[in-house]
Amino acid sequence: MFFLNTRLRRRRSSKWVRNLTSENFLSVNDLVFPLFVHDEQETTEPISGLPDVKCYSIDGLVSIVQEAKDLGINAVAIFPVVGTKLKSKNAEESYNSNNLICRAIHAVKSKAPEIGIIADVALDPYTVHGHDGILKSNKVDVENDETVSVLCKQALALAESGCDIVAPSDMMDGRIGMIRKALDGKSFQDVSILSYAVKYCSSFYAPFRQVVGSCELPNSIDKSGYQMDYRNAREAICEIEMDINEGADFIMIKPGMPYLDVIKTASDKFNFPIFAYQVSGEYAMIKAAANNGWLDYDKVIYESLIGFKRAGASAIFTYAALDIAKTNAVLLKKVYLNYLRQSALPE
Predict the structure, then answer these.
(1) Buried b (16+ CB within 10 A) or exposed e, 335-344
(2) What span, in angstroms and rounded, lies between the C-alpha atoms of 209 and 63?
(3) CA dihedral in degrees (117, 122, 127, 131; nearest 10)?
(4) Pick the residue with more confidence: 265 or 42?
(5) Which contiguous run of DSSP H or E holds residue 79?
(6) pLDDT at 120 over 60
(7) Which of 93, 142, 191, 228 could be bridged to 133 by S-S, CB 3.0 to 4.6 A?
């Protein structure tokens, strides 16, 4: 028998020891719940590419947000599914103060003012070509500065509707500083900016793109001219530093699980809130495998989100947020009932 002074297994020998020495913990306070809204009245539609995720009418959205708030979720991210007739080359509908997303934000805020609302600043749901900006005359490349001007109008429309955090996800250069200037110029100093500073050109977005209809041919659109090359990591640090200097309040890294190294590097380097997005493709893979009996959904989704926390994410966008919150509520109820039973025992 060999002799060891240190046996790390002693720290794993029982559940209570593991709980005492755990380095990371996932709380409902870490989660942001992404939701889809459409303009159909009183209908809730399942989404084929995202198992158990739905697209809501505005009334349905208000109800699900209320449920999320009651379960302890602090913020939701709302994404509009815009009708084809409202799309155009120059995305004019994006800054219509009475558009779908603005009406949805106003409705949610009127019924659940305590919950935080995050909305994307990007043109892809509103353009006929599905790009995140205005195309140049060659109909291939995106015009950066002209797009930024439209993004500023969109950000102002969202702020006026009651949005708490505008989230530029377009990856245009210089848009954070210009949006901050536009918001401050209209007395929206308290509206925060969550910059998608590190949004990779990823195939993991496919289910999301199909939901919002951001392109007629989802598999053919190429956004590599403005979204980040997934082979690069050092470039991400440059993007983050630029957006912090331009006035961002929070930084997003997207997708999440394939880029935990980038999340870790950013959280170590910057004393700044780093958010991460468990995107549609990541969630769909786990959910589909679980629905086929290949994985335990509750265990795997929790493990995957702990990975985000371990890497240093301050908050996580995940379609599993409501599932996690419900599980947390059941556990809290068990603890409370156990407390009541113990309190009733004679001394």
Answers:
(1) eeeeeeeeee
(2) 24
(3) -140
(4) 265
(5) strand 75-80
(6) yes
(7) 142
Q: How far apart are CA 259 and CA 223, in angstroms?
A: 18
DSSP label of 228: B
Phi, psi angle pair for 261, to nearest 5° = -65, -40
Contact 193, 222 (CB under 8 A): no
Q: Produce one character per residue of 303-323: b if its CB has 16 or more CB atoms within 10 Å, e if not.
A: ebbbbbbebbbbbbbbbbbbb
Is the pLDDT confidence value at 248 over 90? yes
C-alpha dist (Å) from residue 332 to 10, 67, 326, 327: 29, 17, 10, 9
Output the six-digit token pair for 8: 């790390």
Taking alpha carbons only, the member of 281, 265, 277 closest to residue 209 is 281
Residue 251's H or E segment, with its range, is: strand 250-254
Active site residues: 199, 254
How many Cα atoms are found within 13 Å in the side-chain-facing hemisphere of 128? Answer: 8
Predicted pLDDT at 24: 86
H or E, element range at 72:
none
Residue that the structure tokens 């102002």 belong to: 156
Four-way CATH pick for 25-216+224-344: 3.40.50.300, 3.20.20.70, 1.10.357.10, 1.10.8.10: 3.20.20.70
**What pLDDT does 196 receive?**
97
pLDDT attached to residue 229 = 97
Query: Which is more confident, 331 or 163?
Result: 163
Q: Biggest alpha carbon distance in the chain?
A: 82
Reported as a pLDDT band with limits 50, 70 and 90, residue 18 is confident
Cβ contacts of 144 within 8 Å, gap of 6 or more: 133, 172, 173, 174, 226
Q: pLDDT at residue 48 above 60? A: yes
Structure tokens at 240: 């983050």
